Amino acid sequence: MTITTPSQVLLSANELTCIREERILFDELSFNINAGDIVQIEGPNGAGKTSLLRIIAGLSRPYAGEVEYLGENITRCRDEFNHDLLYFGHLAGVKSELTAEENLNFNLRISGYDDFDTTKLLAKVNLTGFEEALAGHLSAGQHRRTALARLQHTDCKIWILDEPFTAIDKKGVEELEHLFIAHAQSGGCVILTTHQDMSIINNDILRKVTLDYRFV
Amino acid sequence: MKRGISYTAAFMTLLQRDLRIAIRHRGDIFNPLLFFILVVTLFPLGIGPEPQVLTRVAPGIIWVAALLASMLSLERLFKADFSDGTLEQMLLSPQPLSLLVLAKVLAHWILTGVPLILVAPLLAVLLHLDSNSYGALMATLALGTPVLSLLGAIGVALTVGLRKGGVLLSLLILPLYIPVLIFATSAIDAAGLNLAYDGQLAILAAMLVGSLILAPFAIGASLRVSTN
Amino acid sequence: MWKWLHSYADPERAYKLSGTLLPWFSILAILLVGTGSIWGLLFAPTDYQQGDSYRIIFIHVPAASMSMAAYMGMAVASFIGLVWQIKSADWAAAAIAPIGAVITFIALLTGAAWGKPMWGTWWVWDARLTSELVLLFLYLGVISLYASFEDKVLAARAAGILAIVGVINIPIIKYSVDWWSSLHQPSTIKITEKSTMSTDMLYPLLINIFGFGMMIGAITLIRYRAEILARNGMRPWVRELAKAEEAK
């Protein structure tokens, strides 16, 4: 794990271009993300928010340009980058055939952790009593919480979260916001998209990257 | 917070997860097996019940049915993981992707390949396979079906993101299955004539080693394209 | 390698370069295929065993040898595209694939037509015909995989992986089919040994092989240029080109 100081550049996007089905979503987009940042990617539907997050996470390859992690292209240091990356996408990554506990256990072990207590972690996301329930039988919000429990046990610097508040109640959103602020203050960064207003993270600490819908 | 998971532990975690899910969804294990049995029973009905004819064509029928059953069952290999997002998490895991892919293919082979090998002698009886050939049949299936799973997984990984993957998949992977078919059936034929067939087995073993080494990389690269 | 490749990776340069090369390939193709075919079909001596029906080899052998070469070309282009992420190479691979498939189909068709007088049947499970059939399937797989993706950047990467997997498997498939077939015919052109063909037959054949290569090159260049334009429709230089074309 790398030690980072506040305002150190963690991630930099260099002239990213994304083309989907012959349509340019964004062109030569550049920005830096520092340790301690909470960055919101905003823009209308279809502007390419999810595409941008997936490019930063290394899941998609940009049409042109590159993403650098601590100054090195993420495709060249995939192992180190993945070690420090927590990505939470549209799809929660929860299997409905497994129980909440089995899901969390798998998700953490596949990320390399082996010293955790699933009962305690699930209690932190208000899933006490549902440990043995099949994820397929949980409500939409509980399903998302099962996935979000990963945020309770992680040492990843970079959190990339695509619509993390979907189906989460007001109290849950506030808890997540506190978690993001604590993470940023400890030298990490959070990159997220959301259509909901955040109550605790205000514009003083929130940085925004805006994407426009382009007609080409 | 420690990240003490070894490669073996990561491999076993994924293997156990896939086996556990399959046990909760038993239909997925039995359907390809039933398909295998049905295809084999159709042949005597199509070409007549004469034992000599059946003895002659038995190795080919069993192996072609095995190819088709393997392909059919492979189609779902990455589908569920793709649609619920766990595949993305695997691609972003700090563990080597080829290792995780290998665990998934192994789980798939245990669930579909092994039952197929176990039921094959029964079908061989129905087809009047020469009594000398049983050993060769089992040996070729044991060496050949993992190769089918590994090669097939490349095609599956390439088509997992597509809506109409099914027919395309057969076009992509059946040509790659040809060498396995040729050497496996010829080993069984040779055994039926009391000839040595260790040469064919050695070639099948070489294919297994080769695909064990190379296929996981191709599968990993294909998955990265499919999830793009 | 890297630098040199990149100077041609720019789509506009690739388009112009292929435009310059196209006439040369076309002229050579017409000259060589014309000479080879007329010489082979009209003037080459009649075979003492097969009569005139052997003359189909002047089409069959060039098509068969080029079917393999085109696959290699496609795989090399795909490899460059995948490893160095050069899109011009991906487009080249996409341009070659259908041509290779057609050439393979011609080789199969002429092979079958040759089989009728020679073996008395349209199709024999001869090793080379069978390998050619499998090669056609491999081509069709690459083409339909490319067609199945809506995003052509992804399509090229997926088809590229398949083409490379195919190239690794071709020798294995070829070997296994050869081994399987006992009806194998001894090959008629051998580079190392003395050829069993008379030179009057050999020269037009070699000219046609070379001519077919040029012809495939020319058609590939035409398709390549079309592919570049199709993939770069949103680029300014393509729009200017379209405007200039309209003004004509």
Automatic annotation (TrEMBL), chain A:
This is Cytochrome c biogenesis heme-transporting ATPase CcmA. Pfam families: ABC_tran. Residues 11-213 form the ABC transporter domain. It comes from the Bacteria. The keyword Transport applies. Keywords: ATP-binding, Cytochrome c-type biogenesis, Membrane, Nucleotide-binding, Translocase, Transport.
UniProtKB/TrEMBL annotation, chain B:
The keyword Ribonucleoprotein does not apply. It is found in: Cell inner membrane. The chain crosses the membrane at residues 29-48, 60-78, 99-124, 136-160, 167-188, 200-223. Keywords: Cell inner membrane, Cell membrane, Cytochrome c-type biogenesis, Membrane, Transmembrane, Transmembrane helix, Transport. Required for the export of heme to the periplasm for the biogenesis of c-type cytochromes. NCBIfam families: ccmB (TIGR01190). Belongs to the CcmB/CycW/HelB family. This is Heme exporter protein B.
TrEMBL record, chain C:
Residues 8-184 form the Cytochrome c assembly protein domain. Belongs to the CcmC/CycZ/HelC family. It comes from Shewanella metallivivens. Required for the export of heme to the periplasm for the biogenesis of c-type cytochromes. InterPro entries: Cyt_c_assembly, Cyt_c_biogenesis_CcmC, Cyt_c_biogenesis_CcsA/CcmC. The lineage of its organism: Bacteria, Pseudomonadati, Pseudomonadota, Gammaproteobacteria, Alteromonadales. It is found in: Cell inner membrane; Membrane. Keywords: Cell inner membrane, Cell membrane, Cytochrome c-type biogenesis, Membrane, Transmembrane, Transmembrane helix, Transport. This is Heme exporter protein C. The chain crosses the membrane at residues 21-44, 56-84, 91-115, 127-147, 154-173, 202-224. It is a multi-pass membrane protein. It comes from the Bacteria. Its main location: membrane. It holds the Pfam family Cytochrom_C_asm.
